[in-house]
Write a structure and sequence with these properties.
Number of strands: 5
Strand content: 25-35%
Radius of gyration: 14 Å
Oligomer: single chain
Structural class: alpha+beta
Length: 118
């Protein structure tokens, strides 16, 4: 496998993770919609995704529709653990596994909704 294949696999894996955690979610953080910039560290480099949460639902984009309310920095491993329910957002934030710039309260409210569990 060449480096380009690994990068493509990392992109696909991250897309699948975000699609899975956001699929069918009608929920949005209480109070107001938001745009969240996720900066995710993967084994092949840093990737960025934008999650928009509106009254119509949630979507994941590769480019920003408008300036984000918050920027969330996390590793792909910890993001996976958050989505699976193996790691709580508050614990990840408290231990530095999750860093947030901007509207921390809005981001934490939305991150708690990421959790899908099995």
């Amino acid at each position: 496998m060449v480096a380009a294949d690994l990068r493509n696999d990392a992109e696909r894996s991250l897309d699948q993770l975000f699609d899975w955690c956001c699929a069918g979610t009608e929920a949005r953080p209480p109070g107001r919609p938001g745009v969240f910039r996720f900066v995710v560290t993967t084994p092949t480099g840093t990737r960025t995704r934008y999650v928009t949460s509106t009254d119509e639902g949630t979507s994941v984009l590769r480019s920003a529709p408008c300036p984000p309310n918050s920027t969330v920095q996390v590793s792909q491993e910890d993001l996976t653990r958050l989505v699976l329910g193996d790691l709580r957002g508050s614990m990840a934030f408290a231990t530095g596994a999750l860093q947030i710039e901007g509207d921390v309260f809005l981001a934490m409210t939305w991150i708690d909704q990421l959790r899908r569990g099995l």
